[in-house]
Structure formats: C-alpha cells, structure tokens
Amino acid sequence: MTDGGFVGSVVDELEGILAASQVDMTETALRRYAVDQAPVLDFQLPLAVVFPETVADVQAVVRACAGSGVAVVARGAGTGVSGGAHATRNCVVMSLERMDRILDINPDDETAVVEPGVVNAVLNEAAAVHGLMYAPDPASFRSSTIGGNVATNAGGLRCAKYGVTRDSVLALDVVLADGSLIHTGHQTFKGVAGYDLTGLFVGSEGTLGIVVGVTVRLKYLPREVHTVAAFYPDFRLAAAGVLAVGRARVQPAIMELLDGGTLAQLDGIHGSDLTTRGRSLLLVQTDGFGAAAEAEVVREVLRTGGAVVTTEASAEAERLVELRRHSRGVEVDDEYRVGEDVAVPRSRLVDYVAALESMAAEHDVHLKVVAHAGDGNLHPTFWIDRTGSAVDSGAMDRLNRVLDESITAALAMGGTITGEHGVGQYKLRWLGQEQPEPVRELQRRIKDLFDPQGILNPGKAI
CA 149 to CA 362: how far, in whole Å? Predict the structure, then answer.
C-alpha cells in the first residue's frame, strides 16, 4: 500500500499535526496497541499510535493517512476478541480512549450524547442519577467503550430483553475515509427518512468510517430486580428450562446458562462449591415493577422441570450473575485456547451443545460452554494442554478441526458464526460458509463506496 518514503512522511506529518503527547512510537506502546484480546494470526507493529482528543484531531489524522495511502485502525479499550483492532502492515493505530466526555444526558428525552471513548459503566453511572440506564452490557462493560460497542454491535447479558447495541443507537457522528464529517440518524426514537446509515455503521468494525460521537437511547433503571439460580443435573434439562420459561410467556432481562466445565472453572478461581450443587446452572433475572411476580412464575416453571431453585432471597443468585460475567476465566484467548461466539435458534441449544461435546471428545480437546440462553448466543471455549510454550502439532490440528466443525454445525442448525463479537480478522475464514458470494460482493462494493482507497481497518469484517 505504501513505500518507505510515504511511511516516513506520514509519521512526520502526524507529529506536526498533533501534540507530542498524542503520538507514541515507543516499542512498549506499539506492542500494547498492536492487538486486542483475540488470537493473533499475523502480528504486525503499527507505524505509530495516535491519541486524538477532538473530532478535528481525528479528521486531521485521517486526511494525513489518506494522503499517503496509510491504513488507519481505530480502537477503543481493546477488549474485542475477534481481532477487529489488530494492527495491519504499515498502519497507524488510532486510540479513541481520550475522547471520553459525556456531552449530554437529557432525562426527558431519555437520550445521551457521548464521545466514543466513554466507558460503558461510566455512562451507566451517570444515567443512573436520572433513574435511567444504557441497556447494552457486554461482560467487559467496566472497561469497554461505547465506540467499541458500536463498532462490533456488542451485546451482553441483558440482550434477551433489551437487545444489542444497534437497538440503542439513534444517531452517529462519523469521520469518513477522506476526513469529512457526517451526522446520521436522529434524536427521536422513530425516524425512517432515507437509508438507515446509522444501522449500517453499527457493527461495521471501523471499516466504513470512524465513529466520533454517539447518540443513544436510555431505558428506565429498574426499581426492582429478582434473580433466580436454578441448578440442574445436566445441560439438557437446563436448556429445556430456557424453553419452558419462554412458553410461560415471561420475558427475563437476563437468562444465562453455564455448563459443568464452567462451574468447575469458577470453583477453581473463586473457591465456590457450584459443582457440588449441579452439573449445569441457569440464571434468570427479571426486572421492573412486575419482577417479583415474574420471578415466582420462573421458579415454579424451573422446579417443575427438575431444577433445584433458589428461594426468594436472591443475594446469592445476584453474586452468581457477577461470577457469570467473569466466567471466561482469567486467560486471554490465544492460539491454544479459543472462545467462540456462535448463535443458534433457542430450540437447538441442546442439540448444539451435544454436538460440541461429541466433537471435543472425538478430537481430545477440552470444552466449556456459557450461553446467553435467552437469545441462543453461545460462547464455547476450546483448549488444548501444553507444557510451557510447547505443544505438539497434532494437538493444534485437533483444535482447528473442532473449531471448524463447531462452526459448520452451528450453520447447519440455522445459526451464525458470530452473535455479538464481530468477524474481525479471526472469523474471516468462516464468513464464506454463512454468506454466499453475491452477498459478499455487495458488501465489498459498499466498502469501496465509503473507503475507495481501502485504508479503514483493512482485512477485517468482510
């Protein structure tokens, strides 16, 4: 994309545009900002890391890079797990973490306007003062940014009732590949004028434009929350409990499913005794003025289905929800341990987990599964044993085979390769199985329209 002269000139130009504290080319910074939390397929160091503090800074950086044909990889907190923020060859990484102001909260309109670097939890703390909340809550909500949530259309535990990020975004301010600034969407909850460009940018992983402002819809902070923990002797009965709650026509805010492997890992990390109480755990949380009544219906339905259910005191169940938020463990995904993000129709949860267990046993690969069961989004994690940095090639082959088979099985059941983490760089190898070539070609043409030079997060998402 570039030659050495262009590369050197764009770095010099960036140093002239931004303050010295906004450009970092130290080895430590380059390595830190080169990757997110996904497995790394092709490690590349960026030319520089820049830290814009205003929209004008972002525009200036993009114009400089466009003039030299240098790629720009925008990132938030780097909590993504699909490689969407991995550096590419001869790129500039743009960290938006310093653009972290909440510009407005309007309690009457139930909206907020924020910069992309605002942390999800910080927005929620500010909204709570007004009896409101920002509904999307990925497990990384204490560190992930709103801009990153928008880029991946992040989900979270409350998706079953409140939807994903796209359902809460009303408008965006976006810097395009030529440095120009556009505003999409509206301040109102309704609005159908023209094509939905706001919806197009949400989930585009920084490949169409760089989000520099987000207008979000806020929801009412529930006055009452009830959490039910139901322990089952096996996963099949727990998954049946998910469907039973749906048939009772109760809409939980949270419905999370943990298998025996996950419970064992939590016990090892936190010193809990979950595995002595069951081989699978279903967590259901109801909220709002009808939370108590809905929770009682849930308890009765789950008891009937063979669960050992917590009593009306939900303190322990709420603690279990917090454990669930950290159930991926302390490890970060790498080439030896991969957490997946597939979704299947809820009615196929049991079938899919049975298929995963069979694959793991056949290929001698470890497996644990957690699921946002309310919307059929599963996070199976596969891993292989290693001693230090050594692992035999046969084990790596087995791990990759089980990953491929898990994707194929999900698609065969009417599922998708990614429910909320995004395609990024890591899942590109499977995208063709889900989307036929005419659809992929249309997406490439959209990319070409917005980014004719191909400088915005190249090699990701499509």
Answer: 36
| pTM given for the model | 0.91
What residue ranges define each of the domains in the chain, with the CATH number in brackets? 102-220 (3.30.465.10), 224-331 (3.30.70.3450), 334-385+393-421 (3.30.70.2740)
Place of tokens 């891993």: 383
Angle in degrees, CA 72, 140, 312, rounded to 5: 160
Contact 70, 90 (CB under 8 A): yes
Q: Which residues contact 33 (CB under 8 A, 6 or more apart)?
A: 46, 49, 75, 78, 87, 93, 95
In DSSP terms, which residues pair with 338 in a beta bridge? 382
Q: What is the mean pLDDT of residues 300-323?
A: 83
The HSE-up count of residue 175 (CA atoms within 13 Å, CB side) is 27
> Using N-to-C axis directions, what is the helix angle for 349-363 and 235-247, rounded to 10°?
160
| pLDDT per residue as tens digits for the range 54-103 | 999 999 999 999 999 999 999 999 999 899 999 999 999 999 999 999 99
Residue 140, judged by CB atoms within 10 A of its CB (0-12, 13-18, 19+), counts as: buried
CA-wise closest residue to 266 among 251, 283, 254 = 283
Q: Which residues of 230-265 are buried (b: 16+ CB within 10 A; e: fewer)?
A: bbbeebebbbbbbebbbeeebbbbbbbbbbbbbbeb
DSSP character at residue 184: E
Separation between Cα atoms, residue 135 and residue 354, nearest integer Å: 32
